[in-house]
Amino acid sequence: MFPAFKEWQVIVEALGCGEQILILRKGGLSEGRGGFDAERARHFWLFPTQFHSQREKTKPAAARWFPFDAVRPGNAPVITLTYFAEVVRHRFIETWPEIAALDPFHHWTETAIREKYDWSQPPGLHAFVVRVYRLHQPFTLPVTPAMSGCKSWIDLPVSFDARHASPVLNDKAFAESLNRLSPIPPNAF
To answer: Is 0.85 topped by the overall pTM?
Structure first.
């Protein structure tokens, strides 16, 4: 089994277009007794979800990724995987000013980020800088009950190691995106 990270579909699209290299996460409601495991995987599938009020909780620039393809009644739900990610940096950020300084680097609204920041104790968010890879040939899986629910991590029976993929940003563009995070204090990640 291989790890997959559940994220709003609109954010997966922003990551997949190279417009965002940052994921902010507190954890899902069903993370289990240990809570959100930020260290679970260095590489993972990006599993797009359609939960929550994504349109209201994302910035206007994200509107181009709406509407989503809906599952038609009578059809079994499926998920198409197009991207996987590699964690380049990670840190739990506890102060709101540091989180607020990340606003130019993501597509969530301030209200959505504040909700995540304040949810559960302690206040703060995990900040992940990721390098995203696009599969040359996306593939579709049926959605199982184990993939459902409000949790960040799930396991999938498909390895990304043997899949042909290319980084969504070339080395130079990724380095430039990473450098734009430099106004943030050096130990922010």
So the answer is: yes
pLDDT tens per residue across span 84-131: 999 999 888 999 999 999 999 999 999 999 998 988 778 889 999 999
Give Cβ neighbours of residue 14 (< 8 Å, ≥ 6 apart).
Answer: 20, 62, 65, 106, 107
The total number of structural domains in the chain stands at 1
The span from the CA of 185 to the CA of 100, in Å, is 12
- Between CA 43 and CA 83 the distance in angstroms is 11
Q: β-strand 2-8 against 43-49: which pairing, if any?
A: parallel
Of residues 52, 56, 58, the one with CA closest to residue 13: 58
Cα–Cα distance for residue pair 106/161, rounded to 1 Å:
28
Domain enclosing residue 118, as ranges: 2-188
